[in-house]
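Known limitations

Files may contain more than one protein. Parsers should not assume a single record per file. Below, a two-record file is shown to illustrate correct handling: read the sequence, read the token line, then continue until end of file.
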Amino acid sequence: MGSLAGGELPPDDVVVTALRAGDEAMFAALLDTWSGGMLRVARSYVSTDHSAEEVVQDTWLAVIGGIDAFESRSSVKTWVYRILINTAKKRGARESRTLPWSSFEHDGVSVADQGFDAVLPGGWKELPATWPTPESEALASEVRGLIAEGLARLPPRQRIVITLRDVEGCTSDEVCEILEISEANQRVLLHRARTAVRGWLADYFESVKQPE
């Protein structure tokens, strides 16, 4: 399985064939590549890190159990993330700590008002290229923490979209497929989320540079 050594996954048809054949190396490669991001997304729906870990575990079990029925109508990644989110929503609803996606018809309700306390473990992989990049490592680490806090304050729909796009690197098409929303809706949610987080960052930097 030399094609897996570099950390990049082979094409979907190769992945699916390998999984259907019970290829443990391919399954391990998928776990290594996607599980961290899956945990971050799941944590947006459930109340504890442990619950998120169980959601990811249940998702992988569903993937293995359902791979024979996979019809390649979407990418493997999109299919896996849709299973993840459906699993996370059900778990979150049972915990009464998050609401089903379908109930978030408006984005004006704050995270605090709904009892959301999720944060992104480990912060962002990197700052979005369109946002100012701090020059020092210490400041960069501080900003990543601020961004994580900002994401936790976002309305749920905005938070999950910006997490998938800017943290996990999904394309707009993938996000629309995963969440089953329109491109226009995805674009509006992402814009609102980025604007809010940028605003919080701007306010923070404005406050810290005030003369003593």
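...continuing to the second record:
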Amino acid sequence: MADVAAVVDEVGLHRPVIVGHSLGGMVAALWAGEHPECPLAVNLDGHGNPTRPGQFLGLDEASAARACREMTLFLGEMGQGLPASLVQVMREVDALDLFAAYRAALCPLLVVSGDGMAFSGMFPEHLVSAWEAYCAWLRHELKAAARESSLVREASLPTGHDPHLEDPEALLRLLVGHLGQLNQEERSG
């Protein structure tokens, strides 16, 4: 957040639209909770990792607990060998309640998701169904956050985790359309 504020100040931006991808998208969502003057904050597929049993939609309590343990173990193994600073960032991401951040938005917030199942290939076969349950939970929670807050909107693109690289034109159309819709609502409201 401090880095974004420093760039905004250094460049002399008055009311910038903040767009971030992955971890940067999470930062954009947090920015929305502190900057009501921001015309739009955009989180591009920054959802964190499934690290709590309640994040596996459709699984019973025991299955969700098992999925959570196995997923956490797998993600921990993937993190072995990473610099300690990156491991610390991932711990903080895992502890972050993004949906509380979305509901705390003080400016328009657009959460754009790619096709989460594009990630399923990175998981061992026994974790694919847990990942599917997490993706279903994520879609469910995003829709709920958008219903609960008039400032939160959700959208998806038929891309993987990198919509800005995989289909930049579709992402641009989505962002321009969303800004146009916000401008129209502002004029009529």
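Parsers that stop after the first record will miss the second one. For reference, the second record is described as follows. The chain has a mean pLDDT of 91.
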